[in-house]
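Q: What structure does this chain adopt?
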Amino acid sequence: MATRVKTFNRDNLNWAIQRAGLELDELLLTFPKLNQWINGESDPTVKQLEKFTKKLHVPFGYMFSDDLPEENLSFPFFRVGKKATAKVSLNVYHTVQILKDRQLWLTEYMNENGYEELPFVGKYNLETDYLTVVNDIRETLNLQQNWASNHSTWEKALDFLTYKIEEIGVVVTFNGVVENNTRRKIDLSECRGFILVDKLAPFLFINSADTKAARMFTLIHELAHIWLGESAGFDLNNMLPADDPLELLCDKIAAEFLVPTELISTIYKDEKRIQTLSRIFKVSPIVVGRRLLDLELISKSAFFEFYNAYMEFINKRKENQGDGGNFYATAKKRISLRFANFINNAVKENKLLYRDAYRLTSLRGDTYSRFMKEQLLQS
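A:
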């Protein structure tokens, strides 16, 4: 006879449902007696309660607790048109915790091996002129104003920029799901990215569900946060910043870095098509349109006419998009080659167990070995 659980905290069932962002009705399909469990009319078996907690990504022990943890972020998550919050969805929260875990391990490893702090982290503040920050980022990355036009595609430009950023000591990760779980998608409308600032090992996260051109802007927006020394998350809804001094400054820095005033003013004299300018600068047409508006090269009515038509096109395209791709190539972006190299070296130096390497990379066994062999050799 199956053992039934009678002494758990039934209030925690509702807490777990709300935490996962699910509706009771949809869970009743899998757990028909869930209402009775909540009301105390019936008791789940141990296996049923384990299945419930696994499905909702809750530690089993939480079902017996009277003091559940506050799962808030330690940094603000900015939202366009709303107040900043420390409360996010479970998928975003878990992704932040995964990267914090990686960052904690890496900073400890770097401290033990005598790595020096990165000089550009927190170098400037809100009082700094945005052009000073832009020029310093360009100089640190060793990039010219027109660097993007040297790359034939958005993909190549984004890969190159990612490489340059990792080269100076920043870990860059791209993912649209929690670890490798394709059923746990990270909602783009909630999170375009976040930055975990650290003097030794800053981590950037970009939602790979976004377009490549939009990822470019998020990447530099996050890089600006490193120079200003402030961790944050953001939705950048419609590629706009939240109404906050920090976000507005980072937005200004990213816009000038990617679409320099001098360069676009010159090119615009001969080329006025926003889509063509977008391909030259390797950024979203929305970013180009906003730059032209900010520089008073186009009118507000012209911008919004373009904006509405473009968003209609984007929404239609999203409906027809499908998933796919090579797992190992995707894993390279999810983990970051810089981080993977540190993991690989630590394992070879006997400073990290394979068990912990698997946990830190979200890879296991032969998959881990093949990834390290193939992807690190190609880099």
